[in-house]
Amino acid sequence: MTLTECTVTGNQGEGGGGIYNEWDATLTLTRSSVSNNRAGSGGGAGIYNRFGTVTLNESIVTGNESSNQRGGGILNDGGILTLVGSRVERNQTGVHGGGIYYSAGARPT
Q1: Sheet of strand 60-62: strand arrangement
Q2: What is the pTM for the complete model shown?
Q3: 30: closest CA among 84, 79, 75, 73?
Q4: In degrees, to the nearest 5, what angle opens at C-alpha 75 toward C-alphas 83 and 97?
Q5: Structure letter (DSSP) for residue 42
Q6: What angle do CA 94, 95, 101 make, to 5 degrees?
Q7: I need a labelling partner for 83 at 20 to 30 A (CA). Which of 11, 28, 59, 101 fits?
Q8: How far apart are CA 71 and CA 37, in angstroms?
Q9: Are 76 and 101 a contacting pair, CB within 8 Å?
Q10: CA 51 to chain CA mean position, Å
Q11: Minimal CA–CA distance to 39: which of 26, 31, 50?
Q12: Could you give the CA distance from residue 6 to residue 21 in angstroms, rounded to a whole number?
């Protein structure tokens, strides 16, 4: 999936409040915003990437909150995450990785 000049905001879910990307799926955000989303026990309030590929180009992940799990902004669980000219800021979580949380097997680029 490709999102260009889009806003994903004000959503809520157990995991991946804004976006959930799973199993070999590819997500590309360009000049887009993922903001003010909430996640419960699943984590990854802004973006939850589970064994997929996520690329952020000139995008922002901000103001997301995961109250009970990891990855307030982004939870990268065994996937590939690439950020180019992007910002991850002002996200929070009740445990680990307010901005970005990487779990075992995740590959940053």
Answers
A1: 7-9, 33-35, 60-62, 87-89
A2: 0.94
A3: 84
A4: 95
A5: E
A6: 120
A7: 11
A8: 12
A9: yes
A10: 13
A11: 50
A12: 17
Question: Buried (b) or exposed (e) across 6-19, using 16+ Cβ within 10 A?
Answer: eebeebebebbbbb
Residue 102 and residue 90: Cα distance in Å, rounded?
18
Q: How far apart are CA 46 and CA 61, in angstroms?
A: 7
Per-residue pLDDT of 49-67, as tens digits, reads: 999 999 999 999 999 999 8
Q: How far is CA 104 from each of CA 5, 43, 53, rounded to the nearest angstrom? A: 31, 15, 15
Residue 106 clears pLDDT 80, i.e. is over it: no
Residue 104: both structure tokens together: 């075992």
> How is residue 107 written in tokens?
């590959």
DSSP labels for 8-57? EES-EEEE-SSEEEETT-EEEEES-EEES-EEEEEE-SSEEEESSEEEEE
Q: Can you give the pLDDT at residue 108?
A: 67
Measured CA to CA, the distance from residue 16 to residue 48 in angstroms comes to 5
CA distance 91 to 97: 9
